[in-house]
Amino acid sequence: MLNQTPDLPSLASTVVDWQKQHGRHHLPWQGTQDPYRIWLSEIMLQQTQVATVIGYYERFLVRFPDIGSLAQARQEDVMPYWAGLGYYARARNLHRCAQELAANWDCHFPPTPEQIAMLPGIGRSTAAAIAAFAYGTRSPIMDGNVKRVFTRYFGIYGVTSQRAIENLLWATAQGAVEAAPVELDMAAYTQGLMDLGSQCCVRGRPDCARCPLKARCYAYEHGVQQELPTPKPRKTSPERECKMLVLRSQGKILLEQQVSPGIWGGLWSLPQYGDTSEIEAACNHLGQSSTAARRMAGLLHVFSHFKLHIEPWYLRNDTLQVAETSPRQSWIAIEDLASTALPAPIRKILDGLFGPYGRELPLVTDAPADTG
DNA sequence: TACGCGTGGAC
DNA sequence: TGTCCAAGCGT
Fold first, then answer.
1. Is A42 a catalytic site residue?
2. Based on the domain organization, do A260 and A116 belong to the same domain?
3. Which residues are in the HhH-GPD domain (predicted)?
4. Which nucleotide is nearest to A167 (CA to C1')?
């Protein structure tokens, strides 16, 4: 917890005030305290976006208007109303849960979040949401929205799916509720956190200007919104591939200065293309048939966060006019390559062609495999 | 504890 | 066009 100045007592009230003014109020499952409708919406909304859920929610309610009607149905009558929504264990658990409620609770929900969380398909967060919306219970939720808001506001680093971070987030959420005034509108607070997370404190480009918490938000103060929540480490780094063209004319090579920020920013690299047709287009632009270009041995370059498969092509034509074809391009004499700022794999390609002393060496052709 | 579960949206 | 991920839970 890095935030030195979180205003815990006013946090919840700030969220409630914002929710009442700027939050969502017209979603189909709002404006009711019916635990059945709240429950159904919470289950459908697990890992599923609001826009997707709305239609399913309304069709489901027409067919199964209450716990009793759902409990009496056969599972094969329920599943068609879930088809296309995904995560079908949710529907099976929903049906089982309705039958448990009918059998043990007279078609009502238990009174406490702890008891609600014992029902099939309902975990700690969903139970807290049902209790907050239906009963006003002061029990915090912890979904993707709240994780985003809290990791940023409090400056909580670490992968949120890990136990220690998860525990810290729950404790923080509990602390925020306990510090709130007794008259706190718990339904508005719970909804407000989710509205903040989905409308304002979004992952890609958070709209901090509109955020009621920015005055004491750690991520806003330190400009680290993009670093929080801490992203899960990739198992396998992504792989990309590209073609590069070694264009030689009159003892010079066409190089391209890379932009900063960016990969190899400020260094000189070879003109780069997504696929062979782009190389052909570039050759044609120079009035040169691409059939004269020869493919060289490919190589693999490993960055910290991805792997790049490079397929170099070599084209020599000493009749080409020695004029740059775009502002960032420049013809560099082969004997000057040694003193040019080249990324490692580019130097390897050029050294393979011309040697470290600028001598042209035999080409390796038709060798598509990576040579490292 | 980490992973599987489904589909569609965003970039 | 691919990759990530969204109102999580169960195992």
1. yes
2. no
3. 44-199
4. B1
